[in-house]
Amino acid sequence: MILSAAAATAEGQTVATLLRADSLRNAGSYAEAIEAYREVNDKKGIPGSWRLRALTGMATCNRQTGNYREALENYRTIDSKGLLDVRGKLNMSNLYLTLGLYADAVDLLEPLNATIGQDTRLINLASAYAYLGRGGDALQLLATAPTDGMSAEQKATLTANRGFIEMSLGQHEAAAASLGKAAGMLAEGAGRYIVMANLALAESGCGHADKALAHIDSCLTWQKTNLGEKHPDYAISVRKRAEILLKAGRKDEAAEWFKTYFGLMRNYVCRSFAFLTDKQRQDFWFSNEPLVTECYATEAADPQLLYDVALFSKCLLLQVERNIEAEARRDTSASRLYDSIASLRREADKGSSDARQRDSLYAEADRQEQRLMAMMDGYRSFNANMRLTSADIARRLGRNETAIEFIRYGSTSARRYAALTLDGTGKVGFVPLWTEDSLRNFRLTDGRTLNEAMNSMRAADKNAIYTDTKLSSMIWSKLKPLLTKRGRIYFAPDGLLHLLAIENMTDAMNGSDVCRLSSTRELANDDKDIRGKALIMGGVSYDECDAKTQDDATAAPDRSASSILSALHLPPAANGAYAYLPATAAEADTIRSMIEKGNGIKAECIKGTQATETAFKLAAPSCSMIHLATHGFCFADTDRPEPLAFCRDSLREDDTMSRSGLVFAGANRMVQPAYSAYDDGILLAREASEMRLDRAALVVLSACQTGLGPITSEGVFGFQRGLKKAGAGAIVASLWNVDDKATKLLMTRFYHHLLGGMPMSEAFAQAKTDLRCHEVKIEVETDEDDKSHGQIRRLGRWVWPKKKVMKTVRPYSKPQYWAAFILIKK
Q: Does the pTM of the predicted model rise above 0.85?
């Protein structure tokens, strides 16, 4: 066939675009490569081999940048066009494992006749079996799989993976045998010493500490010489040596090695994090955070180390959102430096037998990094935040102030809690507390367990929690001796304490002010200024919305909430709708009036049909104070099972951030498919996380369940997490559904004190006291007959009415009305 000149030219341009995409991918410019590949794929009538190359290239780039779901969609598109070969199916199985879709991985791999990559098929299938609780099937598969045609290295990899699964299942003797066999099959090199390091852990599990230390020391010697101390493999072996010492009961020695490991890991993260995508950083930290915090098990051996680890681990997840690359791209010189540093470190991290060349690459990257930090305030603060220590926090503490980092450590079946305490002198203490089981199963005075009461919707259960003096004593009693006089306590929760308002418990700390922080590192930062512009939304009409506010949208509508809620059969997409909250309109009006009264703050109040999701997205980024009086929800599973050590689910956020949200005007209607051209009226935590709320010093979520979600080291993965990612400062959220009249009173008293000049934490505490002590007069009947009036007919009889008197009552004194609300300072 003879092509026309125009067709030949178009074909040549397509080939050129494909080659350019390949070049960009090889250079690590994945985002640009994806766009080029997409341009090729969008063309009609191109050969199937070109389309396969474009889609495969997109999948590779998406995988490299942590966009695993997008990569999976690329492979599914390839499959739908009949172009998915064995290699593609193996890559697809890798994505299934990464995304936690283990049953899908089994369905794909069991029938697959892998003419190539049989070792990958077996390893991935065994991993999927193991995660699904089919450990016996996993080991049987690896033990009986035909290995004809495999290289010695592939056979060794299968054997090593068998050993790793055996170790994860607690079969240490078998694991030691498998890993020892695999190590003997491998030639000298990095791979062999990774296997040797795992062999050391298996021997440790068998109780052979001396043999384990000999193995790990041989790894450290080889890695230090051939990879260098800055290489992550060396840091991992240092951690494994600490684990072996800890298992042998040598806590002081273990603490020293954990300290070395922590220093190496922190330096690695500071060097690398700014050069990864946010999803890569998230994936990295979910996988490594449990390993870094293993040092908590050394307990009192080095409390200062543990405090520094707590600061670091709680800092990292928020640093995930700092897009240093985007900041660097705003300046040509900074952009060139950024690319140069990334290239130097990638080359150095590959490892080299030439130690001098490797060290030279690291040194040059460090020199260039100093120049980049001098040019970019954002990059400099990025590094400084990750290097904060207990000494930095101590310098910010007042005379009668104490900082407490609660920590949780140990395996799922034996998790323990402890408190790391810090005073202004810089002294760190370690206070052992309780096990998670003993806390969950604590019997309240009404006979229910704490876990049952926390998960209950009954007001009586909330009252039982926050009036139980024995529970309060269990949580706080060991910490009370730290206070010689009334002062202020700053605490950062962990584990269940994220979902328990311990600051609201009976006599929490001898009457001291107790202030919740996401991390005590926040004490090193100055508070944002609340003066500026305020946004208040309330009295929301959930059935109708103003079309004009929808037409003002500057971005494409986000309909993800309606899709998710529909799939889960949850309201308002299915099975119900949101009801109007009468008190929130008055709440919004009152707060607006208070804010504008002589405070130099301009307030915008949006109510009724105008209080749309779109209106919020447009108005919120310019505001220093945001108050949202509306429905909130959290449908996330707060008790997800712990994954196996080798199959950590690093993508929890994808699900949980899409199951918490706030409801805006018209949501009951806008979730329906007929309104697909508009926002659906529901703002998910994920959507909020993509906004710019850096100016917001305070965000008040006067809504239900806005403090709930799955627990992580940084906090709760609910709506508050989305706001933190967006850059918001302090957040007020609730842990359960609260009466809207009580909420209105609490909020108005909070603003009264805050705008009157009271510090935020004190204003919030005083507002709760005001609500508890709020008095009203009501008319009540006495037992005395009132003969000044005629008789009345009651229950078929004529009787004298009872005399009535006015009585003063406190209608909101019970914790069900005020203990749900927490202030999370940031």
A: no
